[in-house]
Design brief:
With 310 residues, the chain is of the alpha/beta class. The protein has 12 helices and 9 strands. The chain binds phosphoric acid mono(formamide)ester and norvaline (NVA).
């Protein structure tokens, strides 16, 4: 049986290096031959709960499950009993008797952990305050397609120490990528996630660095990544952050530090002229649309792994 069948994907710590690579390999195979996987999830249903906005995650999961022969039920938590305070445990038990998997996008990681613990079906994190594992799988697929490897790649993430930074730290340290994060003081990734990444890095042989100098971080990078300065939930700090993060913009001065053939990634949505200049995000080094397209393929691979016995 497929060893990932029935597993939760909450923050990538539940996966080994080999498992991450096997998802990416399958994603590349599904992308090349989608017809070979049509019907593999026939009769399977994924419920998707959204407490935060989404374009890519929602559409790519729904299109993906349809292409695999299954169906999605989209729930806006405000319109469910969860929005009126029904206990997570009850929601988890009830949903487990109707559908085959849950994808959730919400604020609290604690809530998602409780949901997963009380569910007998896989729970997939479609973004929380602290993690964005599905995005990382698509990003790793893109890096693999562009650079032919993950191990030994130097990835520099410049900006807020947010969910994306955390997921790069965990995923990158597992697969053997060198991860450098540069943030303004006070916006560093969470200490426990940095510690975990450093532990992983001892095994994979990668290097983890947390800096406050973006130029130093970008030095010799194969991949430059940024994300919005104010994530969903931080909107009220937008103005204040725009001032604090000014020198962390990915622009020509910063990219000059990276390798000549550097790749630029951004999970989108982006604010051109804030975290990245238009010439960089729309320039020849940018793979943002390939990256977004890979959400579909990476998540199809992930759903096959956790929802199909094979
Ligand atoms: N990158 C990403 O998760 O996009 P959405 O917020 O549109 O789902
Ligand atoms: N860090 C961003 C990612 C959006 C896909 C946020 O959480 O809003």
């Amino acid at each position: 049986m497929n060893s990932m069948y029935g597993r939760n994907i909450l923050n990538l710590t539940e996966l080994s290096k080999e498992e991450i690579l096997s998802i990416i390999k399958l994603a590349i195979e599904i992308k090349a031959k989608p017809e070979a996987y049509r019907g593999i999830l026939a009769g399977k249903i994924i419920a998707m709960i959204f407490e935060k906005n989404s374009t890519r995650t929602r559409v790519s999961f729904e299109a993906g499950i349809i292409q695999l022969g299954g169906q999605a039920i989209i729930l806006d938590s405000k319109n469910t009993q969860m929005g009126r305070g029904e206990p997570i445990k009850d929601t988890a038990n009830v949903m487990s008797s109707y559908v085959d998997a849950i994808m959730i996008r919400t604020f609290s990681d604690q809530m998602v952990t409780e949901l997963a613990e009380a569910s007998s079906i896989p729970v997939i994190n479609g973004l929380t305050d602290d993690h964005h594992p599905c995005q990382i799988l698509a990003d790793f697929q893109t890096i693999y397609e562009q650079k032919g490897q993950l191990e030994g790649i130097k990835l520099a993430y410049i900006g807020d120490g947010n969910n994306m930074a955390h997921s790069f730290l965990i995923g990158g340290s597992l697969v053997g990528m060198d991860i450098t994060i540069a943030t303004p003081k006070g916006y560093e990734p969470k200490a426990e996630i940095v510690t975990l990444a450093k532990e992983n890095a001892k095994v994979s042989g990668s290097k983890i660095e947390i800096l406050t100098d973006p130029e130093q971080a970008a030095k010799n990078a194969d991949v430059l990544v940024t994300d919005v300065w104010a994530s969903m939930g931080d909107e009220s700090e937008q103005k204040e952050r725009a001032e604090i993060f000014k020198s962390f913009q990915v622009n020509n001065r910063l990219t000059a530090q990276a390798k000549k053939d550097y790749l630029f990634l951004h999970c989108l949505p982006a604010h051109r002229g804030e975290e990245v200049t238009t010439d960089i995000i729309d320039g020849i080094h940018s793979a943002i649309y390939q990256e977004a397209a890979n959400r579909l393929h990476a998540q199809k691979a992930l759903m096959v792994k956790v929802m199909a016995k094979l």
